[in-house]
Amino acid sequence: MSSNVPFGRLLTAMATAFHQDGSVDLDGTARIAAHLVDHGNDGVVVSGTTGESPTTSVAEDAEILRAVQDAVGDCATVIAGVGTNATAHSVELARQAEKVGVDGVLLVSPYYNKPGQVGLRHHFTSVAEATDLPVMLYDVPGRTATLIELETYEALRAYDHVVSVKDASGLLPRAAQLTEMGYAVYSGDDVATLGYLAYGGVGLVSVVAHAAGHQLASMLDAWVRGDHAEALRVHTSLLPAFDAVMGVPNYGATTAKAALELLGVLDNRRVRGPLVALDDDEVGALRAGLAAAGLL
């Protein structure tokens, strides 16, 4: 990948499959990764929020990462989610990811304990100094209760391998400022992707691509070649899917896995608590949204 598009344009924050007893289904997880790459994704993000990382152990994270790396690592970028709300834990996960041999790490702001900007800089620099892997910072204040301020981003530019940002802050104009600093900015919100691209973003870390990979890839391709009308057409056609997957309270891993079940990639939609799998009515609404977008 080029330096200004370090991981490809379309990545998916992929789900993690589970067996009936709640253990990790490595074959199912590898099957998800292969499905995503076969449907237009340049890469996958493993053990992020959609992968239910708060519920998996360090040992499970290693097994999941190896399974995905073995499945698609020779044809797609693999990024390991290493963000937690404990710096030592994130350092451990980053070092583990480097040993597995993946292409980068995703580092979200610590959630719940709500550090200030000094604490954020300490957390991010501790992880950056623990690994030589390229780092994608992840700003999602709706989940972390903390916004990464521009001065913190500026301070992290001291590390050459802190190269990109997954931005789900909703502050789209900041993408232009982050781009000027040298970051490759990825939309962290499917429905906002065209806005991020307009402000200099390079791509998308998606959830909806579990079901709409080819369509989202074509939208990004149209934008890059300057056919903004076609990009908008594809985007508009996917609005029912965006709403069905991301516009409900119980979204993310739950809707991604239900979509994968509807598509026949998985034979179940199991999640780990505190998440609860979609009920039949919720699956019906998801099915209707995906069908309205032409995905079923």
Q: SSE layout and pairings?
A:
Elements lengths: L9 E4 L12 H13 L4 E4 L11 H15 L4 E5 L5 H14 L3 E5 L8 H12 L6 E5 L1 H4 L5 H7 L5 E6 L6 H8 L2 E4 L5 H6 L4 E4 L2 H16 L3 H10 L1 H8 L6 H10 L17 H13 L4
Parallel strand pairs: 1-2, 1-8, 2-3, 3-4, 4-5, 5-6, 6-7, 7-8
Helix pairs in contact: 1-2, 2-3, 3-4, 9-10, 11-13, 12-13
Written overview of the protein:
- By secondary structure, this protein is of the alpha/beta class.
- It has 13 helices and eight strands.
- 46% of the residues lie in helices and 12% in strands.
- α1 (26-38) packs across α2, α11 runs antiparallel to α13 (280-292) and α12 (253-262) crosses α13 (280-292).
- The longest helix has 16 residues, at 209-224.
- The protein is globular and about 45 Å long.
- The relative contact order is 0.13.
| Major β-sheet profile | 8 strands, parallel, barrel
**Roughly how much helix do the residues carry, as a percent range?**
40-55%
Protein structure class: alpha/beta
Q: Please tell me the overall pLDDT.
A: 97
Termini separation: 32 Å
Low-confidence stretches: none
Major sheet strand order: 1-2-3-4-5-6-7-8
Per DSSP, the total helix count is: 13
Number of strands: 8
Coarse shape: globular
Proportion of β residues? 5-15%
Give the topology string: H per helix, E per strand.
Answer: EHEHEHEHEHHEHEHEHHHHH
How much is the radius of gyration in Å? Answer: 18 Å
Active site: 138 (proton donor/acceptor), 166 (schiff-base intermediate with substrate)
Keywords: Amino-acid biosynthesis, Cytoplasm, Diaminopimelate biosynthesis, Lyase, Lysine biosynthesis, Schiff base
Pfam families: DHDPS (PF00701)
Subcellular location: Cytoplasm
